[in-house]
Specification:
The chain has 204 residues and is α+β, with helices and mostly antiparallel strands. It is built from 6 helices and 9 strands.
Length: 204
Amino acid sequence: MAWSVALACATAGDPAEVFRPGLSPDPDAGAALARRLYPAATLVEAGETVLDFALWPYEDELFVGAFDRALLVCDRRLFGLDDDARRIADTVAAALPGARCGVLVLQHVAAGCWFRWYEAGGLRREVFVTADDGVVIDQGGRMPAERPYWAAIDGGAPDVPLPFSPEEFGLAIAREHMVGRDLASLGPDGFLPLELPLRRFKLC
């Protein structure tokens, strides 16, 4: 399966415990976060969908899920890797007091992974790797889930071509640090992250 992902995920607590069966969204909190992300835009609520559908929105869409101790935002503008993308990432990271936040962008056509990690609103880690260009950004302390992937480069191997799959790298980070389980696998508790409900907003 090839993944395209533009996801910001903040959790106050262990994500494996935060994301659990029976988790229900708070529509008002979700709408408030959407307005905080785009205060100058006209936002039109367009119903509810699930994370599986929301991971790679159209350019005029925004998906937001606000839950007990968790926030999810899917916004394709994150793929820009520009000031606007960083603004979106910073805003989500600061929206849930005391939370940890991961921002993950995967695009299977470009074969790249951009990841940012925040703790209590402060940026602690940023990495951007692509299959063609190797390591573009590598700042801050590496996350535990990353370390096996860096072994070859740390041992002196060149980073072009990249000696690991950017997609596998990003999904491992998401599994370990963002949602606490595999995105696409049904857990023994019956919980599937891709079925998490999110509100859909159109930006006008």
